[in-house]
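ok trying this again, last paste got cut off
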Amino acid sequence: MSRVSVTEADLHAYVDGELSAARRAEVEGYLAGQPQEAERVNAYREQIALLHALYDPVLDEAVPGRFQAPPHKAWRVPRYAAIVGWVVLGGAIGWGLRGGTGRDASIPIAFARQAAIAHAVYSPEVRHPVEVGADQEAHLVAWLSKRLGAPIKAPHLGDIGYTLVGGRLLPGDRGAVAQFMYQDAKGQRLTLYVRTNPDDKRETAFRFMQENNVGVFYWLDRNLGYALSGDIDKAELLRVATAVYRQLNP
C-alpha cells in the first residue's frame, strides 16, 4: 500500500476545515501514525481557539463615531466600518503575538496577554479544565518540568483558600508553556501560566494588565516568567500573586 503524502499546507487546511471528506480521511490516517505531527496539529487548534476567545469580541464592537462618514455620505459608512474593523483586529493580534528576543519590553506584555487568553479559554471548562489532575501532582510537575526544560513548582495555596485543580501543557511563542489551575470554595478559578525565559534572567516587580474581564499580575524571576490570571478583584489577585511569589522564593 502506497504511503499518503501530506504537506504542511494539508495540515493547515485540515485544521481550518477546508479539506474534502476524502482528503480529510487521508490526513487523519496519516496523523494516526504520526503522534508528533498529531501533537503539532492539536497545538495549532489550541492557538486558534485562544485567539478566537480573546479577539472575536472585537468584531462586535461599535465603530467609533470619529471614523464614521457624515450623514450625507452614509453610503460609504459600511466600507469605512470594515476597514476600521480589520485595522483594529489586525493591530490587536499583531501586538498580542509579536515576538522578540533579549530585553524587548514587549515580551512581558505579550506573555501576559497569552496568559489571559489561556485563562479565558480553559477556566470555564467543566469536564476537562486540565490535562492532569491534582491527584497526580507529582507526575504533573515532573512532566511539565521536563517539557519546559526547567524545574518548576505548583504552589500550594490552600492556606489562602485556593486548591490545585491540576494543569496542562500549552504552546507558546517560545516553546512549551505550563498552566496550573486553582479554585476556591465558590468555584472561582485562577490560573498560573509559566514559561522559561532563558535569554533574560532579570527579576522584575509585579506588573498588572487587564484584558477584557481578566486581570493578570505577571513578573520575571530569573529564568522563568509567571503570570497569574483571574476574573476577580485586583486586590485579591495581588494577594494570591504575593503568596505565589513567596512560595517560589522561600
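PB: full thing came through this time. Residues 8-54 form one domain.
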